[in-house]
């Protein structure tokens, strides 16, 4: 009993001693989300009607229109923010391995921003590279490089991704004619996983593709068993002349007390050219949209403006969020919190939080009082530096990146053609939606 009074006083203190019944409001939001079917329907539409939503593409424009219409229909104030996006197209690619008298076709995908071969076939000897150091030691001039440095587990991504992000530039600087990489995933599967590369300004933009981990093992075996192995590589990826345009879609409910204070919730509406983009990031888009719908349906008026923004071009050039931040700088709006959902669906686990440690403690106190998950409830983990997801912290905003418990399967679907509607667990999607919506409610009440 004594403990009850202590925690009650703490909660009342944190939320300014207001007379509102927060438990009841949170319950209203949760029961709407539990019983709602529109979020699943929206995810299905985005994935099935507008797959391969690369920014600048026709399907991207279709998804953008659909999302705008949905936000309007739920009664949000809507607007569009124009974004200049990379004019890149994914095209097709072909990898043929030639050894002895045999020729073997291996399925592949172009890497993001890769330039193609203009329809030509490059046929050259292949050199396998297993470590970054080896790239500096082996002669790759005039050859095709095969990067085969396996990712060893979920947390090894940041290391293993060098093959895609930096390896291609380095190989080109050393005279390589093309690159084939082992997909950056710890799983042995048959799906090539794409992702963006970075070209060197001092070397040619050589073609670069990914093959699946199973095919990478096969290719490595062929190389070890044969004296001479060649690869015939062709690609129709490329960049069109001029810039392409897209729009960040904005939907909001104006705050009743502090309309100039912004609480922002984002997911990106673009996806890779080979995928429905369900985990990445159709789920983030529908979860953000559902925050507004839940507030509307539960009849809860926010004190601060709650803004959701399905935005452009996270995958290839990060222009959507950068454009937003540049646009809002000096606008008079005060961004107090930005929540990003872009790491896939699963049971809510934690929120990687970019803010001072006093705020971290304060919000965690609140989450201890008002759990936001169903079975598990995430807590804030203080993180020191902002990552690539957002430049909104430069607007003075605190930021959170929502993390679900999906270490066991996230990289099964990451940037691959199997990231489709069917692989998203709809109950977990609801659980994430409820956690995000309740967190936004608590942040709104905290900054009354
Ligand atoms: Zn993403």
The CATH topology of the largest domain is Aminopeptidase
Enumerate the spans where pLDDT stays under 50 for 5 or more consecutive residues.
1-12
CATH H-tier superfamily of the largest domain? Zn peptidases
Main beta sheet, described? Answer: 8 strands, mixed
Question: How many domains in all?
Answer: 2
Task: Tell me what the CATH architecture of the largest domain is.
Answer: 3-Layer(aba) Sandwich
How many helices? The count is: 14
Detail the topology: elements first, then pairings.
Layout: H1 2-14, H2 22-35, H3 38-49, H4 58-73, E1 77-85, E2 88-89, E3 93-99, E4 102-106, E5 108-110, E6 122-129, H5 132-137, E7 144-147, H6 157-160, H7 162-165, H8 167-173, E8 178-182, E9 208-211, H9 213-225, E10 229-235, E11 238-239, E12 244-253, E13 258-268, H10 278-298, E14 304-311, H11 319-328, E15 334-340, E16 347-354, H12 357-369, E17 379-382, E18 398-405, H13 410-413, H14 426-446
Parallel strand pairs: 6-7, 7-8, 8-9, 13-14, 13-15, 15-18, 16-17
Antiparallel strand pairs: 1-12, 2-11, 3-4, 3-10, 5-9, 6-10, 12-14, 16-18
Helix pairs in contact: 1-12, 2-10, 2-14, 3-10, 10-14
The structure holds zinc ion (ZN).
Zinc ion binds near residues 268, 281, 314 and 342.
Would you mind describing this structure in some detail?
With 448 residues, this protein is an alpha/beta fold. The protein folds into 2 domains: 2-86 and 242-446, Aminopeptidase (3-Layer(aba) Sandwich), CATH 3.40.630.10; 89-239, Glucose Oxidase, domain 1 (3-Layer(bba) Sandwich), CATH 3.50.30.30. It has 14 helices and 18 strands. The chain has an 8-stranded mixed beta sheet with strand order 1-12-14-13-15-18-16-17, with helices on both faces. An 8-stranded mixed beta sheet has the order 4-3-10-6-7-8-9-5, sandwiched between helices. A two-stranded antiparallel sheet has the order 2-11. Helix 1 (2-14) packs across helix 12 (357-369) and helix 2 crosses helix 10. It is elongated, with a radius of gyration of 24 Å. The protein starts with a helix and ends with a helix. Residues 1-12 have low confidence and may be disordered. Bound molecules: zinc ion (ZN). Zinc ion binds next to helix 10.
């Amino acid at each position: 009993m004594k403990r009850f009074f202590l925690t009650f006083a703490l909660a009342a203190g944190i939320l300014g001693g207001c007379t509102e019944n927060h438990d009841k409001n949170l319950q209203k939001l949760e029961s709407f989300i539990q019983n709602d079917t529109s979020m699943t329907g929206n995810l299905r539409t985005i994935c099935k009607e507008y797959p391969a939503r690369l920014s600048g593409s026709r399907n991207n424009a279709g998804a953008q229109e659909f999302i705008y219409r949905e936000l309007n229909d739920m009664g949000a104030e809507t607007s569009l923010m124009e974004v200049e996006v990379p004019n890149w197209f994914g095209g097709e690619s072909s990898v043929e391995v030639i050894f002895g008298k045999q020729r073997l076709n291996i399925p592949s995908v172009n890497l993001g921003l890769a330039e193609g071969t203009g329809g030509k076939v490059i046929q050259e000897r292949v050199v396998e590279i297993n470590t970054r150091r080896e790239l500096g030691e082996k002669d790759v001039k005039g050859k095709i490089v095969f990067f085969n440095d396996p990712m060893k587990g979920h947390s090894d991504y940041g290391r293993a991704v060098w093959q895609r992000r930096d390896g291609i530039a380095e190989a080109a600087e050393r005279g390589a004619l093309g690159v084939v990489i082992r997909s950056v995933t710890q799983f042995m599967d048959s799906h090539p996983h794409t992702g963006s590369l970075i070209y060197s300004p001092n070397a040619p933009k050589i073609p670069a593709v990914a093959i699946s981990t199973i095919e990478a093992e096969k290719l490595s075996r062929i190389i070890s068993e044969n004296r001479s192995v060649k690869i015939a590589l062709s690609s129709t990826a490329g960049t069109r002349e001029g810039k392409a345009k897209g729009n960040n879609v904005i939907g909001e409910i104006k705050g009743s007390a502090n309309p100039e204070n912004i609480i922002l919730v984002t997911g990106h509406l673009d996806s890779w050219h080979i995928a429905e983009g369900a985990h990445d990031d159709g789920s983030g888009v529908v979860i953000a949209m559902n925050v507004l719908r839940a507030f509307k349906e539960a009849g809860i008026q926010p004190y601060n403006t709650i803004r959701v923004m399905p935005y452009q071009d996270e995958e290839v050039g990060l222009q959507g969020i950068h454009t937003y931040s540049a646009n809002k700088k000096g606008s008079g709006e005060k961004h107090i919190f930005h929540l990003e959902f872009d790491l896939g669906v699963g049971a809510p686990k934690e929120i990687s939080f970019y803010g001072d440690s006093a705020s971290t403690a304060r919000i965690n106190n609140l989450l201890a009082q008002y759990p936001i998950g169903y079975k598990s409830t995430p807590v804030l983990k203080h993180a020191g530096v902002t990552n690539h997801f957002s430049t909104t912290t430069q607007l003075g905003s605190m930021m959170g990146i929502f993390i679900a418990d999906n270490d066991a399967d996230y990289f099964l679907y990451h940037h691959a053609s199997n990231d489709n509607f069917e692989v998203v667990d709809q109950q977990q999607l609801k659980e994430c939606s409820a956690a995000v919506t309740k967190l936004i409610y608590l942040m709104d009440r905290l900054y009354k």
